[in-house]
Predict the 3D structure of the following.
Amino acid sequence: MAIVTLTTDFGYAEPYVGVMKGVMLGINRAITFVDLTHGVEARNIRQAAFALAYAAPWFPEGAIHLAVVDPGVGTQRKALALEADGQFFVGPDNGILTLVIARAGKWRADEIANPELSLHEISGTFHGRDVFAPAAAWLSRGGVPLEAFGPPVAGPERLAQTHAMRSAGNLIEGEVVHTDHFGNAITNISRELVEQMERELEPDDGLEIIVGSVTAPGMVKTYSDAPDSTSLWATFSSGGAIELFVRGGSAARLFGLKAGDHVEVRFF
Amino acid sequence: MAIVTLTTDFGYAEPYVGVMKGVMLGINRAITFVDLTHGVEARNIRQAAFALAYAAPWFPEGAIHLAVVDPGVGTQRKALALEADGQFFVGPDNGILTLVIARAGKWRADEIANPELSLHEISGTFHGRDVFAPAAAWLSRGGVPLEAFGPPVAGPERLAQTHAMRSAGNLIEGEVVHTDHFGNAITNISRELVEQMERELEPDDGLEIIVGSVTAPGMVKTYSDAPDSTSLWATFSSGGAIELFVRGGSAARLFGLKAGDHVEVRFF
Amino acid sequence: MAIVTLTTDFGYAEPYVGVMKGVMLGINRAITFVDLTHGVEARNIRQAAFALAYAAPWFPEGAIHLAVVDPGVGTQRKALALEADGQFFVGPDNGILTLVIARAGKWRADEIANPELSLHEISGTFHGRDVFAPAAAWLSRGGVPLEAFGPPVAGPERLAQTHAMRSAGNLIEGEVVHTDHFGNAITNISRELVEQMERELEPDDGLEIIVGSVTAPGMVKTYSDAPDSTSLWATFSSGGAIELFVRGGSAARLFGLKAGDHVEVRFF
């Protein structure tokens, strides 16, 4: 069984995702589908890019990731098939693969342009079904090399400023990239960067994390280590980034945190 | 692997869908399940009928479609197994298959009455689990002919007025059948009918689409072709019907469109 | 294909469930996943316990049920692998398996402690991915006996008062355990207990069911047997318990019923 994951902004109540699966099963019967999320906000490419980059590394080699958040459907934006570190990604060339490419040791992208690997008729409004699903299904069968899809794409579209940065001697600046179902706010500030600065600065007292007018006084190992259930604390998320939370509660609701919020880590 | 799709009004948070899958796996281990939608409004047979008819054609021959929106569960309404153009459909005889039958070149329906193809004990409240899931699973194994389920049903229940119609020389009357996750309003006015009238009338100026007090001034090829993001436009949907939309926004929210709204296409 | 079901409080929009599936597919490619529910209220172990116990019996022998509602993640709470009546259950030792164990003829639980059957690195916040998913996947491959996971656990954690009880000669006291998508209120008062008391008491007039200030005057066979669509009635649910409903409507909305509500059945 091949593995095809799906990431879209189609929501859960529409038959659109099922239709893409139907098209894929017409090309390859031996697919295990895994829905990553269909709850991406309508047309929010950035949110999809983060979700995809979070989830993909947990899948085995050869997995195919289909990502369709496609506000430019029907325009001249390209369709992409990407290989990155042994996995495959299919989606519009609109930045949705930015973080996957940024992290990849080795990658190669091709335009999906070969009409034999798409449906015969291509609608103006649903390339998820007509272009991306068939491409994913052909990849899942094996035996179709990336170059069969079309010419290589040297510079896929990228989203700006997806990474946190060291902005001063003792400061990291990043952002909240997602508030999850529990109200935890996941940032783009990686454990790696935090630990590198700790090694370098050997701070006396540790660090604090500032988001808007709230400050988390430090990092703990797990949710239960926070001393109370009313104040904001931080931990390293399961994806290896700073995550702001309230023990047993919702940081998003209690402190109004949301995707896009500016976050600072200050060592002292 | 056999393919079984599921369409219900059970919502996403209930274990009912999982239980139907469990029952099916007890009969056939080699099934790939595809959820079409479980977001049908409670007891809304019409909505389910449109979703099913939209999605089914994109599945390969032999696919089995299980549809359970069943307000009459436990009453005398029949249970149906239908073959239509090489695919199979299982559900209550309450009109849920109206559009599938209307479109089928060739179909045959049988009542599900053979107790050996249902669970031993049949509850009064969940035939999805006790009757329809087993029937779908037996069909998915192959080797069980339709006539094994029970006597043929010559006239399955049909919903009234599911199709748009030419109501005057230059007019089509139809309805909004669904507003989707993006706020696009899909109608039951087919591209076929529109193009047929265009050929016949050779209209000078094209057409306009009127829904309530709003008028879409014409049709464009894809969402991005609409000149602005505040007015209503139309395109042919991915299902081949007129779809009303607002570029980058929600037509449903901006103009209050909803399923059941009367729609007119006027050629001039 | 092995069967692995999933029950969590992760919601539907997060990639967490997909990530657990990715981890499992890395261990065993031949899994059919069935989502039971990811709509458990955040950290509501009791709700998950009822959903799991409702659904599990409908799956074939050998099915593996992964249940992750885990507010104590990262603390000293144990991780459990349980065999009960030929099925397997994996989850935190926090009471989530209470009802499965209560019903089991024969069961055996082992702590998941063997690091070779978990991911190499175990985060402080997501044991669903790092511990429970790998355990379920190893069980799904077969050939890994329960005792390979760790020492037996004689007394897994149990939730209090999950069963309805006869509290007086002619009274049963229980609770609403769930209000479903249709607004039906499912209780923990089993058909068995009701029928046993009917046999014993031979009541003249039958029974009534009292919840808060509302009384359902009796039990009917199916929803359509209720005489009107404004008053509360009861039927035996598809899970074999008393279920309160309004014909064609929502009992939860009309009468404000919710999980935890005290319910009395009075024979007279």
